[in-house]
Amino acid sequence: MVENKIYPKDVEAVFFKAAERGWAVTGTATETSTLLPGYKLIRFKSGKFSVLDAYCVNPASDKSAGFTTIWCDDVPVWTMHYSGRYQKRLIPLLKLALQANIISRTFVGGRGPTTFTDEERYPDLVYINNVVRGRRTFSSFAGREIIVDVGNLNLPLGYHDYRGISLL
């Protein structure tokens, strides 16, 4: 049984600790499971909290999906889901955008900042994170992140839709 004294700020702190060791910072996951064929898993444990980030990519497309769940004493307390598509060449910029919020411990839908650029390495690309109004807290959030080509009339090149909720 989970103690009554679980605070959302503690769950959020664990989210960022896990993210510091996750896909955006350390690279791709190597763990797999027969319970989730085609998924790669990243696990993290901190005291009474455990985190699982699981994602899959269809090898015949550039589409991907995944989820992150946080447990306290084996009881789920928070979850998020994401899905969309990114061309392989966009992944380095996506990781940099995600890292920006991980490093600063800024929660914007569990993804990157509202806007992010790296003009030196990716001069024509801009990452944009559109969080749904009224769904902007760690306890309830939803949105869509996109990477656009500003050199080509802001053509969208990739996106992920995401949503999540505290289970406390």
Automatic annotation (TrEMBL):
It comes from the Bacteria. This is DUF5680 domain-containing protein.
